[in-house]
Write a structure and sequence with these properties.
alpha/beta; 360 residues; globular; 13 helices; single chain
Length: 360
């Protein structure tokens, strides 16, 4: 067998493994309605040129028990009004009409919120994907049992290194790595899917900790969603944390043979690319609708307009891009940084017209 044939076989095996992981995490075969809606949305997107909404990320609070170096929570202003249960119920209903099949809830740290269970109960877990994002510190066995009872089928945990001291230093609290990894074990025990979120900078990409984290996820067969660092939040105006072309080439080389590594760009219905503002949206506790957690320009506010109206506005500007606009589009980054040199974030929808670099 020639060397070229071996390489070709290895590539095909890698593609198959990657496909298997996407099916494993993206499918919920015990939810027939979800699977039917997923198939319908894929067909609408691929063959009818439509853009059904896929998922909504709700930030239900900005309180947290960590001091992460890249946090943006304290950069976003409190609105005039905070969302209550009836507001979440209305927006979830509107989202479903727009095609949504997945609902994710985060913070801050969502598990700090008194009564977070009431918010999760607004989603029918038999018909939709229900997930939370957490730092993992509060994932005791009792908490995981509660999440299982509520119908949570996926939990995303933020880990920035496979080395405890490195993760703890970035998160600002000793013992956070140990708590998070213990929480992962509890989730696995109770059959809840685990996704690892990891933010990548030029420095962390080359660190031992990142390689250890890749090993950890591969050994545990956990999907790791790698997020390219963005000049947002406490990293506002900081372009040193942005991956350059050589960094991205190195990233591709490192993860090339790891089927458990993905990016948000991989989760679209029918094409690879950024789905912020199109297939997915992020809503703050104060009703501001953002394309994603890292671009702090709102497309509207749910207290003032319908979600359909807001999303239609967003899609005039946010279209499928091959790269992440806030992490890889240098022209967009330059314009965004100039606009966001203010404490009054998120910027109003009028600021959408001030950016011209909407394409990579």
């Amino acid at each position: 067998m020639s060397g070229g044939t071996v390489i070709h076989i290895k590539k095909n095996i890698m593609k198959l493994n990657t496909f298997i992981q996407k099916i494993r995490y993206g499918s919920n075969f015990n939810k027939p309605h979800y699977m039917f809606k997923l198939a319908s949305n894929v067909l609408r997107s691929k063959y009818l040129g439509q853009t059904p909404l896929r998922g909504v990320d709700f930030a239900v609070n900005y309180s947290c028990n960590l001091e992460c170096k890249h946090c943006f929570n304290d950069k976003l202003m409190k609105g005039e009004k905070k969302m209550e249960l009836n507001d979440y119920a209305r927006v979830i209903k509107e989202s479903i009409k727009l095609g949504a099949i997945s609902f994710a809830f985060q913070g801050g740290e969502i598990l700090l919120l008194k009564g977070f269970e009431d918010v999760l109960r607004l989603v029918n877990p038999k018909r939709h994907s229900l997930s939370i994002t957490t730092n993992g510190l509060l994932l005791s066995k009792e908490m995981v049992k509660k999440l299982k009872y509520l119908g949570v089928n996926s939990v995303t945990i933020s880990l920035d290194s496979g080395l405890a001291e490195e993760h703890d230093r970035f998160r600002g609290k000793n013992g956070s790595f140990a708590s998070a990894t213990q929480g992962i074990e509890h989730l696995i025990q109770y059959g809840i899917k685990v996704v690892i979120n990891s933010t990548i900078t030029p420095v962390s990409l080359r660190s031992e900790g990142f390689h250890k984290l890749l090993e950890f996820c591969k050994n545990k067969k956990l999907l790791i969603n790698t997020i390219f660092a963005a000049p947002s939040g406490r990293w506002s105006n900081n372009e040193e944390i942005v991956l350059k072309e050589d960094d991205i080439k190195l990233y591709d080389k490192i993860v090339n043979n790891n089927p458990y590594v993905v990016r948000d760009l991989d989760s679209g219905y029918s094409k690879r690319g950024c789905q912020g503002g199109t297939e997915s949206i992020y809503i703050t506790p104060y009703g501001d609708v953002l394309p994603c957690p890292y671009i702090h320009i709102r497309a509207g506010n749910i207290f003032k307009e319908s979600l359909k109206t807001i999303r239609n506005r967003a899609m005039r500007y946010f279209t499928y891009q091959e790269k992440c606009m806030i992490a890889e589009n240098s022209s967009f980054i330059d314009q965004y940084i100039k606009l966001t040199r203010t404490e009054n974030l998120p910027l109003s929808e009028n600021s959408l017209t001030k950016i011209t670099a909407w394409n990579n």
